[in-house]
Design goal:
With about 190 residues, this protein is mostly helical. About 90% of the residues lie in helices and about 0% in strands.
């Protein structure tokens, strides 16, 4: 029933609101019975709904505590990870310096190895060139001696054909000529090397 309608009805009929609405119960009895009924209802609610409310509140408290514990653990983990990241950043700088130092050392070792190899190759080339020069000078000297002997032989034959020189003079001329040419060749070879 509408409250406004009830007040209008009470006012229209001329009923005193301080008096009881019920015809059978007085205002005091209504107060006693209403209080008793309220107490019974509250006791029943307290008895049956109270444990459920306590249980719900305990579950809510446990959930909040769990969330607080989880957040504290997450905060600790995050701080540890941040510390690890800061430490790793320092390690990265140290690692970069170490890698640069290793690269410099390897480059220096390669340069030293290349220089040593070049020095060995240059020494081998010089030795081979010296051997080639000695071999060439020996061949030239042999060829010159052979050519001189051939020319001396030809000159001797012409001279003998002309009958001008005897055998002893011929032998002396050949020996002197060979010695003279040999000295000239040795001097030329000494000047070229």
């Amino acid at each position: 029933m509408n409250v406004k309608f009830a007040f209008n009805l009470v006012a229209a009929e001329g009923i005193d609101p301080a008096r009881s609405i019920s015809a059978y119960l007085s205002a005091q009895a209504e107060l006693i019975w209403g209080t008793a009924a309220s107490i019974i209802i509250f006791a029943v609610i307290f008895k049956f709904a109270g444990p459920m409310v306590k249980k719900a509140m305990a579950a809510r408290t446990a959930a909040v505590e769990q969330e607080l514990n989880d957040s504290a653990a997450a905060k600790t983990t995050a701080l540890a990870e941040a510390n690890d990241i800061r430490q790793a950043a320092g390690d990265i700088d140290a690692e970069r310096q170490r890698l640069i130092a290793d690269a410099d050392a390897q480059a220096e070792a390669l340069l030293d190895e290349g220089r040593a190899r070049l020095e060995v190759e240059v020494a081998e080339l010089n030795a081979r060139a010296d051997a080639d020069i000695i071999s060439a000078s020996g061949r030239v000297s042999d060829e010159m001696r052979g050519e001189i002997a051939r020319l001396a032989n030809a000159a001797t034959e012409r001279t003998l054909a002309a009958g001008v020189i005897d055998d002893a003079t011929q032998q002396q001329l050949i020996e002197a000529f060979i010695q003279n040419v040999g000295q000239n060749v040795s001097q030329k070879m000494g000047a070229t090397s």
